[in-house]
Amino acid sequence: MDSEALRKYSALHPRPAGLTLQYGTAGFRSKAEQLDHVVFRMGLLAGLRSKAVTATIGIMVTASHNPEEDNGVKLVDPLGEMLHPSWEEYATQLANAEEQELQKVITEICQKAAVNLHKDASVFIGRDTRPSSERLSQSVIDGIQVLGGQYHDYGLVTTPQLHYMVCCQNTQGQYGKATLEGYYEKLSKAFMELIKQGLARSTSLGLDMKPNERCCSFDGDADRIVYYYKDTAGHFHLIDGDKIATLISIFLKELLAKVKQDFKMAVVQTAYANGNSTRYLQETLKVPVHCVKTGVKHLHHKAQEFDVGVYFEANGHGTVLFSKAAETKIRQLVKEEKDNEKREAAKMLENMIDLINQTVGDAVSDMLVIEAILALKGLTVQQWDALYADLPNRLLKIQVADRRVIDTTDAERRALTPPGLQEKIDALVKKYKLSRAFVRPSGTEDVVRIYAEADTQENADALAHEVSLAVFHLAGGKGAPPQPI
Ligand code: G16
Questions:
Q1: Mutate which of 226, 444, 448 for ligand 1 pocket (most atoms within 8 A of beta carbon)
Q2: Which listed residue, of 92, 144, 208, 332, carries a Cα 20 to 30 Å from 398's Cα?
Q3: CATH 3.40.120.10 domain locations along the chain
Q4: CATH assignment of 183-385?
Q5: For the chain, how far is it from start to end, CA to CA, in angstroms?
Q6: For the domain 393-474, what is the CATH superfamily, name and number?
Q7: Minimum-distance ligand 1 atom for the alpha carbon of 315
Q8: pTM for the whole thing?
Q9: What is the pairing mode between strands 28-31 and 56-61?
Q10: Going by C-beta distance under 8 Å and a sequence separation of 6 or more, which residues neighbour residue 90?
Q11: pLDDT at residue 197, rounded to an integer
């Protein structure tokens, strides 16, 4: 390692005295002005990770849905996954090290993670449209160069596009071409093929807008999507990640039944999943459902256990993973199966595999998947919405002095600390029908999130408010106590 270069460049990206930042739900996230040293050091970390795994690593400069003045950094592992959890600790150590200790911390990481500093490093960089993002991605480049690494700066891209590019690069093009054109070509081709297949069977289907028009929105870095519409009475209907998972599961389950293979399919959700979505998936659709901690990395990991793993957070983050064995079998059926219905179903599954961005939840790819399914099944947005009715719910956030006083267990559904909080929540939940509530510290904002659902909106609101008061009193709330909704 060039110690002189490290000293020189780290002095250009000084760490504000006393500032400690934690690796959160999806990397580091904070006010942009506090992040220069963090992104520089994440450039270093990406270089180390690349040397450790002998593959290209991705760095995305974005704060997703956060306010414009925030920013953040997400690291992408070789196959497009989130950074391996065992490296989150190294990321935190590096981000918080005193400047004169940087070299020592790097040496320790190299020892613990068996990094050979003489190896090559390659890093792909992307950024969002925030005013601070361009400058911060320059600091990332400084970090990569200190370790003698190569980089390719893709500039403005969505987070899932960067995940895609990293995966393409490390699979020698097997997943696609590592360019933006390659990404658009792959998705548009699969979408056209999928739609064509369905339209060839029935000309009455299509993408025509219905009177109650469906709309969709992406988040700040296009890795989440939600649908919505206004009904004829002017009421707003949100179609969230739970309903997206349900639609995709229905479609895939039908195709899987047609190809008659013994594929294991499951849906992965978090505690934020609406209770009625879980009930519908388990009881009506008869698909196993698993609940994990918030954060796509947790959902992705769990979904990898199945042949077909559908995962979605209620907030619209999600995708579908196919096991290698299932993918190979499906592609083989397309080529060799004599039975027409079976082969056609396999072909649809094959196009779904190509249309879905399996590296990470991708709003563009998810939208094309949803549009194709709606068209192929001839479903209106209202019919999709009516699959089940969401239980009324309320999501609140409050500020406390230190949100780390809240520790949770059971996929974040129960609070271990502060003492007495869970008992209080249990007692409050008992007061309402069909009710459920939980609290957890956010990993992307300095807030505690409170979720409640119940039989009516009034009850969900009242429960959420009562739980927020309990958090305020037991976890050191800041400012005035939360007001009723
Ligand atoms: C990130 C994570 C998501 C998570 C969200 C909110 O999304 O990737 O899995 O649901 O943060 O997390 P929290 O409740 O801990 O603040 P994004 O789109 O903001 O990167």
A1: 444
A2: 92
A3: 3-177, 183-385
A4: 3.40.120.10
A5: 57
A6: Alpha-D-phosphohexomutase, C-terminal domain (3.30.310.50)
A7: 10
A8: 0.89
A9: unpaired
A10: 45, 48, 109, 112, 113
A11: 76
